[in-house]
Design brief:
The chain is mainly alpha-helical. It has 22 helices and nine strands. The strands form four sheets. Strands 1-5-4 form a three-stranded antiparallel sheet, with no helix packed on it. A two-stranded antiparallel sheet has the order 2-3. It has a two-stranded antiparallel ribbon with strand order 6-7. A hairpin with a 2-residue loop joins β6 and β7.
Length: 459
């Protein structure tokens, strides 16, 4: 008899509980979301594991005879229920007990962390984030008052945004040890560690300045009126000042980057700026075939969104003296996290509200930008291609496209692709060299937690 494992979880994964059923003996774990995520990451890596959708739920199951699962619904834990009735599945997916043992063993190995309260990744670096915010406000001071006012527009207290990228980079810095010669110890080691942390904080500051500069330029190109819940800079001060403010932030980022005196890191972040320009140009100059290509979309998304965080994560590892292999793992974490982040952004553009997003919903399609949900809908409904080719200047075409999207699995498939990249990001962190350092392990847990926060967010 194959060992039976079944999970049914709402896509929000808020307050989720999980259940393990082995043969006829039910063992119930109450590790909450951290347990669930750990199990799902292990399962999703198995080639014979299947994810299905039924009644608005994402169903994760491996089925043998008499399978049972614990049903979660918006935080509530439901009684044990025969999963055939819950899922309404006609097929059974069999998985050998040895494969399940691998998952169960790993869960038990991680048992101590699963029993702990779920981490708040942002709180782990809250003090440093405040220092970074103060330094960023000081770094963007300009001689000309209007330029100074424009440059600090999105660094003012209350409109700094989620500070997601600095959080990721500070946690990445805490997740990797400093490689120093064996004869360095004591006060010398402490001095090197402090100097490294300052340099890694500088990477976080540079990354945030590049990011905000790209937002200022994007808003000009998109004729945006809102950003982060307030009027966009171009809407408030005009396009010219907005472009110059973005250029000013990039120049300040370059000065900070030069101060690190590390040519490989300088090359990495200079490439990021090139990628931002390339990605934006790809978006503006697409042919009809390119606009309907998933490969083209993902390449553009990497350039516009994922390149910054991936290369910044790699820079953090390089500054710490990590090997090329570990530096690439840091890069892969950032790359997959960035792709997952943008995929969910594209989903929220259809499902979110203007108030929750801090910008207008349906903004992409109204600008003629075809994103993952619509690309997946195109695969199901080839006739949608004619609508896409006509463009979306006519509101009627937008309505037709949205109607096709609503009938398709486009939203769900985009979420699943985001989840795949989130799992790859988590796997990269889990491949870091083993450590007994509690702070490093805690930071790694936080990085893994962020992968799930990215795909379950609603704004």
């Amino acid at each position: 008899q194959p060992t039976i494992f079944a999970l049914l979880v709402h896509p929000s994964v808020e307050g989720a509980a999980a259940a393990v059923v082995e043969e006829e003996k039910a063992t119930r774990f109450t590790g909450g979301k951290m347990f669930l995520r750990c199990v799902l990451r292990r399962l999703l890596s198995k080639p014979r594991f299947s994810a299905q959708v039924a009644n608005g739920y994402t169903n994760y199951l491996v089925a043998g005879a008499n399978a049972t699962c614990l049903v979660k619904n918006s935080g509530g834990i439901y009684p044990w229920t025969p999963f055939g009735k819950v899922l309404g599945c006609r097929e059974s997916y069999h998985w050998g007990s040895h494969a399940f043992h691998d998952v169960r063993y790993q869960v038990h190995q991680d048992g101590s962390s699963l029993a702990e309260e779920e981490l708040d990744p942002f709180s782990l670096v809250a003090d440093e984030l405040s220092l970074l915010a103060d330094r960023l406000r000081a770094m963007v001071v300009a001689e000309v008052p209007k330029l100074a006012s424009a440059a600090e527009y999105f660094f003012k207290i209350g409109v700094e945004g989620k500070r997601f990228r600095p959080t990721v980079l500070l946690l990445m810095a805490s997740s990797l040890s400093l490689h120093v010669p064996e004869n360095v110890a004591g006060a010398a080691f402490d001095s090197l560690s402090k100097e490294l942390r300052t340099r890694q904080q500088c990477i976080a500051e540079i990354t945030e300045m590049i990011h905000v500069a790209s937002l200022l330029h994007d808003d000009v190109l998109d004729d945006a009126e809102t950003r982060r819940g307030i009027g966009s800079l171009n809407f408030v001060m005009g396009n010219k000042i907005s472009v110059l403010a973005g250029d000013f932030l990039l120049s300040r980022a370059c000065v900070a980057l030069a101060s690190l005196k590390n040519t490989e890191v300088v090359s990495l972040l200079a490439t990021v700026v090139e990628h931002l320009v390339t990605g934006e140009t790809m978006q503006m100059t697409t042919t009809l075939d390119e606009r309907c290509s998933m490969d083209y979309y993902l390449q553009k998304t990497y350039y516009k969104t994922a390149s910054l965080i991936s290369n910044s994560c790699k820079a953090i590892a390089l500054l710490a003296g990590q090997t090329a292999e570990v530096s690439m793992l840091a890069y892969e974490y950032g790359r997959n996290l960035g792709l997952a982040f943008q995929l969910i952004d594209d989903v929220l553009d259809f499902t979110g509200t203007s108030s929750s997003l801090g910008k207008g919903s349906l903004s992409d399609i109204r600008h003629g930008i075809v994103t993952a949900p619509m690309l997946f809908a195109l695969e199901e409904f080839p006739q949608l291609r004619a609508v896409v080719d006509r463009g979306f200047e006519d509101a009627a075409n937008v309505d037709i496209a949205l109607d096709y999207l609503g009938k398709s699995q486009g939203i769900q498939r985009a979420r699943e692709l985001a989840a795949k990249h989130a799992n790859l990001a988590a796997a990269a962190v889990e491949s870091f060299p083993a450590t007994d350092d509690e702070n490093m392990r805690l930071s790694r847990r936080a990085l893994v937690d962020l992968t799930q926060r990215v795909i379950t967010r609603t704004k």
